[in-house]
């Protein structure tokens, strides 16, 4: 009887720990966000960072870089067959960009909502593109469209050492 009780307690403890791990892992989703050359040139990097921070997301990687055409061709490889691809690569390599990694609960989906539609004319007021852009060819920002894309893009732009795991003091005020 005691042995059976001990086994049940051990089993129950493992279940509780598994559930706790799932719950604690939820806020750890990551997405890739990049301010494009027009956003950098217009001085909008701080404004964009501020929006993500105000939402409650945590910045875990950031750099200012001038991307090579090779890196951009890898990044946008899913668009390689599209007629606008050469112009996109040329534009994205025309000036510095600010790639970032953000972490938080549902950050991929929420990040995309914060960006607004790819075409600023279709973006709602209150979104980054709705408030700050006019033309689709100069839509200032890129955001991952899925967790899988985010993981691919993060590993393309950042080494593991460049993505910093840390806990901000305010996290207890953002998540239950």
UniProtKB/TrEMBL annotation:
GO biological process entries: CTP biosynthetic process; GTP biosynthetic process; UTP biosynthetic process
Residues at the catalytic site: 142 (pros-phosphohistidine intermediate)
Listed SUPFAM superfamilies: Nucleoside diphosphate kinase, NDK
Pfam family, one: NDK
Cofactor(s) annotated in UniProt: Mg(2+)
Native source organism of the sequence: Galleria mellonella
UniProt superkingdom: Eukaryota
Domain spans labelled Nucleoside diphosphate kinase-like: 28-165
GO molecular function ontology, one term from the record: nucleoside diphosphate kinase activity
InterPro entries: NDK-like_dom, NDK-like_dom_sf, Nucleoside_diP_kinase, Nucleoside_diP_kinase_AS
Signal peptide span: 1-18
Reactions it catalyzes: a 2'-deoxyribonucleoside 5'-diphosphate + ATP = a 2'-deoxyribonucleoside 5'-triphosphate + ADP
The UniProt record lists the keyword GTP-binding: no
Binding-site residues for ATP, renumbered to this chain: 36, 84, 112, 118, 129, 139
Membership in a protein family: Belongs to the NDK family.
Keywords, comma-separated and alphabetical: ATP-binding, Kinase, Nucleotide-binding, Signal, Transferase
Enzyme class, broadest EC rank: transferase
Keyword Signal: yes
Name listed for the protein in its UniProt record: Nucleoside diphosphate kinase
EC numbers on record: 2.7.4.6
Coiled-coil zones: none
């Amino acid at each position: 009887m005691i042995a059976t009780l001990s086994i049940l307690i051990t089993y129950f403890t493992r279940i509780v720990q598994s559930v706790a791990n799932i719950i604690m892992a939820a806020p750890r989703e990551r997405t890739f966000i990049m301010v494009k050359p027009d956003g950098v040139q217009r001085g909008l990097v701080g404004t964009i960072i501020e929006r993500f921070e105000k939402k409650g997301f945590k910045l875990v990687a950031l750099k200012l870089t001038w991307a090579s055409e090779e890196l951009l061709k890898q990044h946008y490889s899913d668009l390689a067959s599209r007629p606008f691809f050469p112009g996109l690569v040329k534009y994205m390599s025309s000036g510095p960009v600010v790639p970032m990694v953000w972490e938080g609960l549902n950050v991929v989906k929420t990040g995309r909502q914060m960006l607004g539609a790819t075409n600023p004319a279709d973006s709602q007021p209150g979104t980054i593109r709705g408030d700050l852009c006019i033309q689709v060819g100069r839509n200032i920002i890129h955001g991952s469209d899925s967790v899988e894309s985010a993981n691919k893009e993060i590993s393309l732009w950042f080494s593991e050492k460049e993505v910093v795991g840390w806990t901000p003091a305010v996290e207890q005020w953002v998540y239950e």
